[in-house]
Structure formats: C-alpha cells, structure tokens
UniProtKB/TrEMBL annotation:
ATP binds at K14, H208, L209, G210, N211, G212, D283, M284, R285. The gene is ackA. Mg(2+) binds at N7, E385. Substrate binds at R91. This is Acetate kinase. Keywords: ATP-binding, Cytoplasm, Kinase, Magnesium, Metal-binding, Nucleotide-binding, Transferase. The active site is at D148. It is an enzyme of class 2 (transferase).
Amino acid sequence: MKILVINAGSSSMKFTLYSMENEQILAKGLFERLGYDKPNMVYKRPDGYKFEAEIPVKNHVEALKKICEKLVDPEDGVLKSLSEITAIGHRVLHGGEKITAPVKIDDKAKEIIRECFPLGPLHNPANLAGIEACEEEMPGVPNVGVFDTQFHMTMPPEAYLYAIPYDFYKKYGIRKYGFHGTSHHYVTLATAKFLNQKVEDTTIITCHLGNGCSMAAVKNGKVIDTTMGLTPLEGLMMGTRCGDLDPAAVIRLVDLGHTTAEVDKILNKQSGLYGVGDINSGDMRDMLAAAEKGSERAELALKMFARRIVKYIGAYYVLLDGPQAISFTGGVGEFSVPMRKRIMDQLGSLGLKLDDGRNAECFGKAGVISTDDSSWKAIVMPTDEELMIARSVVDTLHLK
C-alpha cells in the first residue's frame, strides 16, 4: 500500500511517498517558487539519490505533473505506474468547526475548505489547489484532507471563545482554532508510547518550536488549550510573527497611517525574532550566533522568545493540575540545545530541572533531558507530520 502525502503552500508543494507496510519513505521532495521566476524542484530517495533543477512550471497542477513524472521515471523513479498509489493525503490548514477529523475529500469537503478561505487566506486556497491538482492528474484515486485545526477541536468553550460580543462568534466564527494540530497529535501519541502508557492516560504540554511556534495543553490525550488562535499569529513569539499583542497596537498602527494589509505584513512577516533582533534574520541559529558575538538586540530577542514560552508553561501547568511531561518538538525544539536550556533553566520552581549532558545528547532525537529528581519529565520528541497524515489516510479509508 502506497500513500502520497501532499503539503501545498501558496508558492510551494511538498511531497512524500510512503510504503505503509513498514511506513518507509520511498521518495520525497518539493517544488519552490511556484508562480515566480525560476521554480525549483528537489527530489530525493532514501538511498541518497538527489535531483535538483529549475523547472518552468506555472502552478500546482503543472508542479504535480512533474512530481508524478519523476516518481515513475524509469531511472529515477520508485513506481512503475501511478496506479500503485492507493490514496493521497493532504495537509489542509483550516476546516473551521465543520471538519473536526480527517475526511475523504468530496464536493462538500471542498466547499468547506473554500468557506474557510477568509480564515486561512494564504494556506487554504493553496491546499485546495493541491487537492484539485491530484484529482486532475490521478482521477479516481481517493484524496483525504488532514486539518491543522482538528486536534484542537476538543477545547471547551471557555478556552476557545474570545471575550468579545458573542454574536461575532456565532455570525463570523471568530474564535480560537489552534494550528500545528497534526504535529501536536503525533507528538502526543509518540510521547505516550515513550512513557509506556495509554494516550488516554497521558497529560502533557506539547511545545512545537520552529519558524512557527505553538503549544498545547493535553489532558488525557485531548487538547484543552492551545496558544495559536483564530489564525497562526496568536500566542508565542515566532521567527517572523509577533504572537500575543494588545489589539490596540493594531488600531494605533492603522491610525498612524498604515493600511490593514501593511499591518498584516508587519505582524506576520516582519516581527518576532526578525523584528526585534538586528541581524535581518528570524532564524534561531542566526540569532543565537549573533547573541554569542555580543549583539544586545539578538540577546533581547532570545530572552523575549524564552520568556513567552515559560509563561505559557506555567499557565498550562496549572490548567493541567501538574502534567506528566513537556515534549519539545519542531526544528528549534528538537535541535536547539541552547534555547531548550534557556527555557528549562527558568522552570525550577515547577520542579523541573535540566540535565545539561542529556540536553546536549538529544540533538534531533527522542530522549529525556530533565534530571532524575525532577517531579515531571522534559522530553525531546521529533515530530513527523507527513507520517501522521499518511496514517490518517489509512485509518480514514479503512485500508488496514
């Protein structure tokens, strides 16, 4: 059984092909700069083979055609025919309140994805374009949507509602939805297995740190709160996103003459580490290097980044009445030994202490980084959103 996973962005298309008998990756890669000059394709196999070239394609449909051609190429491919693909799984950002689980794509599902365009203007149109490209290129092959919001749909109203007039929620769907759900779900399941317990007995904080950052409070395997909100802008400080902000700051910027489009760009693409640091980068590695060389603004950005995370850990610790563990994941959570130390060194009052040796050893691999005498565990747990999507396709279509 072979499952193709597609993650279509506004100007990109990532793909991973799995053999689900052993959950082995057969091929993976991406198209970048779709709709711009010099679109670039990367194609990799697990045996080390890599193909990279500029290929002139205009849109997601043309990109998918080239991906499919590569998958069945007599020399470079891993399939004899596209008919070997059993089903296709798609990452979709937003399903609103109407889609709360992975769903086989039909006209109704596509209409809901379209209805959510205003809630995910950059992602949902691209996600739908990826679905429709697959329908065109591989007619008859079932497509399954796996939504970033779905794992967070267990939040109670007191967690997901904003303290604004209730009619705005009823009329416009303005509420906290949460994102990175596929990653938080995978890490929850993986942490439960790591702790050798059932997921329904697992109460943890999941901490997804990358260019985008979010946390979730997971009680007995279900999310009761998460940091991202109506959009992926709320919550933690991120690579280029501001995170939590007084709404009056937005009003002030508009009053000063900035258009709403300009403010949106400022808060999403020019803020966070990028906006506070002075190095023209939102990359954690660059920020740490700059701070090491004496940049005061880089150091300030790092302190702000860690402080926001520590504040949410404290809040979620109380909400969960003492979790069993916190799991760090994502590019920063898995690989940034220094940032994990900055966070962990502030958690002693919660009974959680860092083992520096373990922290250094857990570079991109699962393991406990807290001391044995800590009252709960800090864990590094690599995420795998693509595999989670592939597993969801198998479960949704009852392919086992």
